[in-house]
Every structure is written in structure tokens, then in C-alpha cells.
Amino acid sequence: MMPLITLLSLLVLGAQAGHGVEWTYSEGMLDEAHWPLEYPKCGGRRQSPIDLQMKKVQYNPSLRALNLTGYGLWHGEFPVTNNGHTVQISLPSTMSMTTSDGTQYLAKQMHFHWGGASSEISGSEHTVDGMRYVIEIHVVHYNSKYNSYEEAQKEPDGLAVLAALVEVKDYTENAYYSKFISHLEDIRYAGQSTVLRGLDIEDMLPGDLRYYYSYLGSLTTPPCTENVHWFVVADTVKLSKTQVEKLENSLLNHQNKTIQNDYRRTQPLNHRVVEANFMSRPHQGIQLPNMRKPRLCISFSQHQPPEMQVHESCSM
Known about the structure:
disordered C terminus, 316 residues, Carbonic anhydrase 6, alpha+beta, 12-stranded mixed sheet, disordered N terminus, 5 helices
């Protein structure tokens, strides 16, 4: 039987949560460990993120490349908000993603997860063979057969997230992020918003979007609904160390503390199947065909061994 003191503590916590206590990752009454008290689905068996273990990933050659529409340069307005947990970019519904089975999803918003509490802490939510990347990008979509995101969020096939992982490349600025990062100072405080014009969302994603992991999971923040089809891109975005540090240190939460380590810990797979449309070679990492096109100026180090040297061209 649960000790009386513990039971009373849980009841008090649940009551306080119901009266507006805000969820957090690691502090306060409703930290990640206690999310299920207020949001029961957060304690489910199909939760995200997960560790993508290559030895368990099943190769599925029938998974075709995702068909992205409207992701290129759009000259309209993109509202950008500090919601107290992350920075969120609202996206036009003219952006859509069609999957291998023909399902069309309409874009809703794009946001980021990062670390930064110390120089050693990275902040991606998904990990690959236990490796955590510095940042993770989520483009959230809803199934086009529903009238709105709010309606789709309640349905078992309602949502899809295109996720991308970020690596650090020293001395190399990613020009496609310059405008976005320069406006973070305009939304330093929780609840503040600004507007960006003329963003190219596709250029803010990895250069090669053809190859991905696919599995069924949940939202990684409350209410943690288990109706998300995840597509985690195999290629990565490259940002400079300066750009990463800017994102990690620019925004404040509702308690006026720097937003850092805004990622959820990986969740049990619970016998779910993770598929990929690429193969891996033992001891040699991911085997990918040639990339679609270079997107960044990558610094070249002649001191690296030949197999580690990078010879990508610039396309900024």
C-alpha cells in the first residue's frame, strides 16, 4: 500500500496542477516525472522521443521519399513566439507533407529543443544509438482530412512530425538561420512575439530529406497524445557553435530563467517497430546515397585523416 504521506503529496500535486501550475522539464511541482498526474497520456506505452537503435531498425525499401510542398521560400509573414518552453514559428497551411501511403499532412508550426545548461549538454530529444545531438527541430503537421489542428489532435491518425537533428560545425555560419537567430532578442521574454518575412523552411532543414526513420509515437510535451507519425531525417543540419550558443542562451521562461535543456528523456520502445528507408553497414554507420545538393560552407581540415576530410562546396 502507498504510504499515506506519499499519497497526500500526489493528491496535493494533482490539485495544484489542475489550478494552473505550468509543466516543466526539471523544476517545480509539475516536472517531467510528474506529467502523468495532470496529463495521463504522458504515462502511456507509445511515448516519444525514443532512442533509434540501428540494430533494431527495420529496413523498408517501400518507404518513398516524403513529398514536401510549399517548404521553399515564402514571402509572407511567419509569426515567431517565445511560449515559455521553446521558440515556435507558425507555418502557413500551404506547406504540406505527403507520406508514402498517400496521407497528406498540413504544416502547423516549427519549434526547437536544445541543451545548454553546460558546454557538455546537448539537447536533441531523439538519440541515435544513445548519441544525443545538440538540437532537434520539429515541424508539426496535422492530417488534412481534419478541419483543424485542434480537431486532428484528438484523432488516432491526426498528427505527423518531421524531425531533424543538428550538429555543430566550427567556424561555419549557416546563413539560412541568420535572420531567425538575429530576431531571438526580440522575443527574449515568455509570451513575446515577432514576425519574420521571407523564410525558406526547406533551407532550414537538412540538405537531403529523402532518407528517414519512421515510427508511431506521441507528442513529446503535454498532453503527450499518442497519435503522432514520426519521420526523423537521417541527414543533419549544420550550425556553428556561435549559432547554437545563441539559441541556448537567448530566451527566458515564465520564471525569467534561461530556457535550457528543453528536451524530454527518451521513452521505452515497448515493442514498437522503427523502420527506415536506408540501410546501415556494420561498424560504418549510416549508408546514404549521394546527397541532393550541398547547402553549407563546411570548414575543411587538412589535419584530418583522408576518410574524415570534408570537401563540400558552398551554396549560400
